[in-house]
Design a protein that fits this description.
Layout: H1 2-35, H2 39-66, H3 72-85, H4 89-122, E1 127-132, E2 135-140, E3 149-152, E4 162-164, E5 168-172, H5 174-177, E6 183-186, E7 190-191, E8 196-197, E9 202-206, H6 214-228, H7 237-258, H8 261-270, H9 274-293, E10 296-298, H10 301-308, E11 312-315, H11 317-321, E12 327-333, H12 339-350, H13 356-367, E13 376-381, E14 385-390, E15 393-398, H14 400-404, H15 411-422, E16 426-432, E17 435-443, H16 450-459, E18 464-468, H17 473-483, E19 487-489, H18 494-505, E20 510-514, H19 520-525, E21 528-532, H20 539-543, E22 546-548, H21 555-589, H22 595-613, H23 630-635, H24 640-656, H25 662-696, H26 703-728, H27 736-772
Parallel strand pairs: 11-18, 11-20, 18-19, 20-21, 21-22
Antiparallel strand pairs: 1-2, 1-3, 3-9, 4-7, 4-9, 5-6, 5-8, 10-22, 12-17, 13-14, 14-15, 15-16, 16-17
């Protein structure tokens, strides 16, 4: 049956291309005949190009009727037949070309989707390296059985699920979990197919066959989600159910009232459905073209129309809301060591590595103005770290196992490990001549354009925004609070993301935005899947309906604005075309318009409707807003620099509380409270009292400021907690639990205010840019 179905589908595609070729050839031959003064030959050519399309249309309509569906195809049949009967074969030929050409465009979209899906499947490994009698043999992945022992070489994709058999394996699971930092797997730990071996060669014991492994499951989810999607019903079909019977009724009434068949024919000529056939496709294709100019690839007008109806947007976190890389959070120096000196040594050594974490460390050193040194005799252990010589001293930087070995970490290093766990951060240890001197904490960071993207989506009418991520809840909740998202779903695997999409879909049209293979099933399941595809081909862009070619999240809001405008123009064109057609039909029914004038009027309507639909090619204006001067724009950042220095002090206090004795902790917590009350609280209250009222008069939509005000309330709530805790300190027994509570409150304030300040700067820049435009 599948082979027969594929053969039938291929035959239908060939037939559609043939009908388009006939329509084009007939129009060309007819035009040439007119040019040489043979209108009789032209009429024959136009008719010959229309009849095959009519025949194919009859078969299609019968099939649709049997399936319980009727749409604009029936009007096309009546109009083409009436045009030939009335001696207007040119009109029939034009409609024939438009109808057959639309079918071919649909075939192209389907072929593109099939190609993209094949690209996803092609990423899966075809062979595995299996141990057999102390020798390695290459076998097809399908022949691998549970219990087999495989070797996975450096840089290879893990072919099946298994358990690590060597001492250690370093794998990049970003394709599955979305997390960009490689993870270390020790003996006995599970490892998933689709992961990339980012370290040295390791062995694994197979726990699932290729067909039952994680990556195969993702491919199945994508395939199932795509095949489960209902085909796009053209916007015009919704109105054809009204337009077709009313047109026939008016024609019949005209005949019975006058007894003049010419009036009925004139009505049918005036009822030519070109506004219905052309208006929506032209508007949506124009919208697709306009989106492409902004680096937004929309896979067809149907997807653009679905984008315009969206109510809910789900975001992946890593690589979507965040940059998907690492940034330096803090330098944890051993007692007696200088933090800048530790960073200098580590950054100098990491210059010899091309790892993404190494790049972040080197960049952090340069940002702090450190003069990096040239490392010598560098030896890199893939996925674990580096060793080398700097100024004659042996320096090591990397994982705990590489730097510490089996030694127990000193107390300060144990606290750094715990703090890395709190912040969902990667920790890099640094040793000099075998002595541990410090550690670096690195984690992902928010995209610079994420606050602007969220604001654009609110302005575009998106009512609900949800983050769904495989990351831990603590890190996800912090970002969700800063961005004022409506919900945060953490610790979600790919199948959980699909469930989240389907849950939202049951309520409203839903968009999913992501960038990794782990997002592909959810992208395929959503009404519209949007992938950030600037970093190269991936399963996400293959499964998505919209691909943002530029690495900018704010283009998601722009895509929705373009889609909404194209849909609005399509609706305007269809409604206006129908209304004018009804007026023309009424005039024909009363004998005011004869068939030839009716045809001319209908052509004028067609041209007007199509020209209106082409407005979707023009950029969408964002309306007018108030203006501010450049000086005012700078003034809006009235004390952000001073505030950031205060936040740096809070971060230093959080670090110092790790080692503080109770008496010293009381002093540090009091200092943190003073910074919060004198700088943070004062800043937030000044924003609410003077800055935000000014911005409200300048912005088109106040939702962004409402979200910022809610962030203010959260910051003030945390400040009150810290203030109450500080007041109670003299009467409390200060133990490590109380210190930890204070530490977490201070850290939450510092993190939230830092992200909130970045959002404010983004709004100020947007207002200043809009005023300068």
């Amino acid at each position: 049956m599948p082979a027969q179905s594929g053969t039938l589908l291929m035959f239908e595609r060939i037939l559609r291309w043939t009908l388009v070729a006939i329509a084009i050839a007939g129009l060309a031959a007819g035009g040439l005949a007119h040019a040489i003064g043979r209108p009789d030959f032209a009429a024959v050519a136009f008719t010959a190009s229309t009849v095959p399309v009519i025949a194919g249309l009859v078969v299609s309509i019968v099939r649709d009727v049997l399936a319980g569906r009727i749409g604009v195809d029936a009007i096309a049949l009546v109009s083409m037949s009436a045009a030939i009967i009335l001696g207007e074969p040119l009109a029939g030929a034009v409609v024939a070309l438009m109808y057959s050409g639309g079918n071919v465009l649909e075939d192209i979209a389907v072929a593109r989707a099939e190609h993209d899906l094949r690209a996803l499947v092609d990423r899966a490994p075809r062979q595995a390296h299996r141990w057999r009698d102390d020798q390695i043999e290459d076998v097809p992945v399908a022949d691998v059985n549970v219990g087999d022992r495989l070797m996975v070489r450096a840089g290879e994709i893990v072919p099946v699920d298994g358990v690590v058999q060597t001492t250690m394996a370093v794998v990049d699971e970003s394709a599955l979990t979305g997390e960009p930092i490689p993870v270390t797997k020790t003996r006995g730990m599970a490892i998933l197919s689709g992961s990339l071996n980012a370290g040295e060669t390791f062995e694994l014991s197979v726990t699932a066959t290729a067909g039952e492994s994680t990556y195969a499951g993702i491919v199945k989810l994508v395939t199932g989600a795509q095949t489960a999607k209902a085909p796009f019903v053209r916007l015009a079909d919704r109105y054809a159910l009204i337009f077709l019977p009313v047109s026939l009724a008016i024609a019949a009434a005209a005949y019975f009232a006058s007894g003049d068949v010419i009036r009925s024919l004139a009505v049918m000529v005036a009822a030519t459905p070109c506004p219905l056939i052309l208006a929506a496709p032209v508007a949506f294709i124009a919208g697709v073209a306009q989106a492409a100019r902004s680096g937004i690839l929309v896979k067809g007008g149907g997807k653009l129309e679905a984008l315009a109806r969206a109510h809910t947007v789900l975001f992946d976190k890593t690589g979507t809301l965040t940059v998907g890389g690492a940034r330096l959070l803090s330098v944890e120096a051993a007692p007696g060591e200088d933090a800048d000196a530790v960073l200098l040594l580590c950054a100098s050594l990491e210059q010899a590595s091309h790892h993404v974490v190494a790049h972040a460390i080197v960049q952090a050193g340069r940002d702090r103005g450190l003069k990096l040194k040239v490392p010598e005799a560098v030896r890199e252990t893939m996925g674990s770290g580096l060793e080398g010589v700097i100024d004659g001293r042996r320096i090591s930087a990397g994982s705990r196992d590489l730097v510490l070995g089996n030694r127990t970490p000193p107390p300060w290093a144990a606290r750094a490990i715990r703090r890395a766990s709190w912040r969902s951060a990667l920790i890099v240890f640094i040793a000099m001549e075998g002595r541990l001197i410090g550690a670096l904490l690195l984690a992902d960071e928010l995209r610079a354009d994420t606050p602007r993207a969220i604001r654009w989506l609110r302005e575009a009418g998106i009512a609900r925004m949800v983050m769904v991520t495989g990351d831990r809840a603590a890190a996800a909740q912090a970002i969700g609070a800063a961005l004022d998202l409506d919900a945060v779903l953490a610790d979600r695997v790919p199948s959980d993301k699909v469930d989240a999409v389907k849950s939202e879909q049951r309520l409203h049209p839903t968009i999913m935005v992501g960038d990794g293979i782990n997002d592909a099933p959810a992208l395929a399941s959503a009404d519209v899947g949007i992938a950030l595809g600037a970093r190269g081909a991936s399963a996400s862009s293959e499964a998505a309906d919209v691909v943002i070619l530029a690495d900018r999240l704010d283009r998601v809001g722009e895509a929705i604005v373009i889609a909404q405008r194209a849909r609005r123009i399509a609706l305007e064109s269809i409604i206006a075309g129908m209304a004018l057609s009804f007026i023309a039909m009424g005039a024909a029914a009363f004998g005011v318009l004869q068939p030839v004038p009716a045809a001319l009027v209908q052509e004028a309507i067609d041209v007007a409707v199509i020209l209106n639909a082409l407005r979707a090619l023009l950029p969408a204006g964002r309306g007018k807003a108030g203006r501010i001067t450049a000086e005012d724009g700078s003034g809006l950042r009235h004390d952000h620099q001073a505030l950031l220095r205060g936040l740096d002090r809070l971060r230093a206090i959080v670090d110092a509380l790790d080692e503080a004795e109770p008496e010293q902790a009381i002093i540090l917590i009091g200092q943190a409270n003073a910074v919060v009350q004198d700088q943070v609280v004062a800043h937030e209250r000044d924003d609410e009292g003077s800055v935000y009222p000014r911005l409200a008069r300048l912005l088109q939509d106040s939702h962004g400021l409402s979200a910022m005000s809610r962030a203010h309330r959260e910051i003030l709530h945390l400040a009150r907690l810290l203030g109450r805790l500080t007041e109670d300190l003299p009467s409390e027994h200060v133990d490590r639990y109380l210190i930890r509570d204070a530490q977490r409150v201070i850290e939450a304030i510092e993190t939230l205010v830092r992200m909130h300040t970045a959002q404010e700067d983004d709004i100020y820049e947007a207002v200043a840019a809009r005023s300068a435009a």
